[in-house]
Amino acid sequence: MRVLIIGAGAAGLATAIFAARAAPDLEVRCLDGASKIGAKILVSGGSRCNVTNRIVTERDFWGGSQRVVRHVLRAFPADRAAAFFEALGVPLHEEEDGKLFPDTNRSRTVLDALLAEARRLNVSIEAGRRVQSVSREQDGFVVETADGESHNAGVVVLATGGRSLPKTGSDGFGYELGRKLGHGCVDTTPALAPLVLEGDRHAALSGVSHDALLTLRVDGTIATRLEGALLWTHFGVSGPVALNMSRHWHRARLSGQTADVRLSLCPGETFESLENWLLSQERARPKALVSTVLATRIPASLADAWIVASGIDQGTTMAHLAKDDRRRLLHALLDTPLPVADSRGYAYAEVTSGGIPLDEIEPATMQSRVCPGLFLVGEILDVDGRLGGFNFQWAWSSGWIAGHAIAKAARA
Ligand SMILES: Cc1cc2nc3c(=O)[nH]c(=O)nc-3n(C[C@H](O)[C@H](O)[C@H](O)COP(=O)(O)OP(=O)(O)OC[C@H]3O[C@@H](n4cnc5c(N)ncnc54)[C@H](O)[C@@H]3O)c2cc1C
Q1: What are the residues facing 375 on neighbouring strands?
Q2: Which of 350, 356, 381, 393 to probe ligand 1 with, by most ligand atoms within 8 A of CB?
Q3: Separation of alpha carbons 125 and 159, rounded Å
Q4: What is the pLDDT, as a whole number, of residue 221?
Q5: Domain residue ranges in the chain
Q6: Is 31 in the pocket of ligand 1 (CB under 6 A)?
Q7: Is 399 touching ligand 1 by the criterion CB < 6 Å?
Q8: 9 C-alpha vs ligand 1 centroid, how far in Å?
């Protein structure tokens, strides 16, 4: 039986390898529209490829049913993914927040290992083969590529990714292919994208990084709270907490709701606890400048900016900080509006939120419920993980399930 995998990114390569391992007689071909295979793997994780995470659960993902995500992750969990790469000669090491990277710290090592394994298994991987149509026929599929060729297949796998970083070849056309085969699509938005801010307050802080708590209010109600490192940039904010927030901001806006993001520079503190700290500092260091005291907790440039924005003279000492000023400053430190205008969009997004609904696939096989013989894996599905190796894990796990299900179907 011939298996045609459309898209040779992380999910497509994983599917090909696991199918060919489980059924060596299968003819497995990957068609990819990009001129070079694996561009997204190469740029991932700052060119170091954050392959997975030490602990991955459904709670690290947003989008479709958590039950389905759990099922898929459990079939091929993170420790098995790490063992899979180790066996391919790519041992991983752990960094902060459980992120696993190749010991070489080069994403090229990960891509080369996957391609070498695919070659060993006689999987054919063809670049420059953009698929423009897939049609279901009586006894299989006909796949047409932009170069005018037509390919028959018993099984087709849609592994075309989402819309993020379209220059790598993932431009969302896979959703159209899915739609023509009967699938729906949850509206997509960028996810894991930096946030563009209105105004110019951020520009002076460019390059400053610190721990932050971001709170998203949707139509006035707290919807999401995320904590982590925030990086100020010339356009707004980036860093893990801003990237993780982007999908929530977009989803709220997509559904026509108001989305207000608020920033706390002192995560874990309440108004009372922070006021107590400030008062204890006043007693201990009455002659110290307020900015000097604040700079023991947050970067000095941020302390200065918040003091000025709170209407307090920069030369104010702790002893001379009036009660009203202190309270205004405390409120600003704990709850400053972050005027998000937009994210930087798909061109800068690491992943896509939305996609083909999870309830349109059979989670035990990743086979389409609406088009038998069609399998869907990776980012094309309505699942997006937070920053930290979770999106690749989704690609490996969904690829593992699809590969084994295809092999089983072929044997049957
Ligand atoms: C800058 C950046 C850094 C990232 N870093 C990390 C990280 O460190 N860790 C992590 O877990 N995740 C990371 N991600 C996310 C991760 O790369 C993706 O979630 C993952 O690559 C998705 O795999 P996929 O195979 O589903 O899709 P993709 O990797 O997007 O692959 C889809 C493939 O399909 C091909 N294709 C599309 N349409 C067609 C068509 N019509 N015909 C033929 N071929 C087609 C494309 O050319 C592409 O090669 C990062 C993403 C970006 C953009």
Answers
A1: 157, 367
A2: 350
A3: 13
A4: 97
A5: 2-190+350-411, 195-344
A6: yes
A7: no
A8: 5
Q: Domain 2-190+350-411's class?
A: alpha beta
List, for the chain, all residue ranges whose pLDDT scores fall below the cut of 50: none
- Determine the distance from the C-alpha atom of residue 206 to the mean position of all C-alpha atoms in its chain, rounded to a whole number: 23
Any atom of ligand 1 within 6 Å of the Cβ of 16 = no
How far apart are the CA of 267 and the centre of ligand 1, in A? 33
Q: Identify which of 30, 37, 44, 62 to mutate to test ligand 1's pocket (most ligand atoms within 8 A of the CB).
A: 44
Shortest-distance Cα residue to atom 47 of ligand 1:
169
Rounded distance between C-alpha atoms, residue 219 and residue 242, angstroms: 20
Whole-number Å distance between alpha carbons of 43 and 171? 16
Q: Beta strands of 27-178 (E only): which ranges? A: 27-31, 52-53, 61-63, 92-94, 99-102, 124-126, 131-137, 140-145, 150-153, 155-158
Which stretches of 159-218 are assigned E, i.e. beta strand?
186-191, 195-197, 209-218
* CB 395 less than 6 A from any atom of ligand 1: yes
CA of 391 to the centre of ligand 1 (A): 9
**Residue 205 DSSP class:** G
Tell me the torsion sign for CA atoms 377, 379, 385, 390: positive
Q: CB 140: neighbour CB atoms within 10 A?
A: 16
Amino acid (1-letter code) at residue 349: A
Q: Check residue 125 and give its pLDDT.
A: 98
If DSSP codes are grouped into helix, strand and coil, which group holds residue 247? helix
From ligand 1's centre to the CA of 12, what distance in Å?
9
Give the separation between CA 181 and CA 380, rounded to whole angstroms: 14
Neighbouring residues of 133: CB distance < 8 A, sequence distance ≥ 6: 143, 144, 177, 180
Q: 314-337: per-residue pLDDT in tens?
A: 999 999 999 999 999 999 999 999
pTM, 2 dp = 0.97
